[in-house]
Design brief:
Helix content: 55-70%
Order of helices and strands: HHHH
Mean pLDDT: 96
Largest sheet: none
Structural class: mainly alpha
Shape: globular
Distance between the termini: 9 Å
Number of helices: 4
Low-confidence stretches: none
Radius of gyration: 11 Å
Number of strands: 0
């Protein structure tokens, strides 16, 4: 699965959890760039992403994610 396909599935997870699509996801996107992406919704988004890709993130991976680019790289390494 290439980066664009991963990003597309990640966006679907975000839209599902946040219930809006008024944002663009890029490698540099962080929680402060997306309305509604807060600590509680963050964990729900992570769970939705894990379900979408049939993966389970390691705690250290979660702690090292700073933006969407990090999330995509972690997904790629888990697949």
């Amino acid at each position: 699965m290439n980066k664009e396909e991963i990003l597309s599935k990640v966006k679907i997870a975000f839209v599902s959890v946040l219930e809006h699509d008024n944002f663009e996801l890029t490698d540099e996107t962080t929680a402060s760039d997306v309305d509604g992406w807060e600590s509680i919704t963050h964990m729900i988004i992570i769970a939705e992403v894990e379900k979408s890709f049939s993966i389970k993130f390691k705690l250290m991976d979660l702690m090292n994610m700073n933006n969407i680019g990090d999330l995509i790289n972690t997904i790629q390494s888990e697949m």
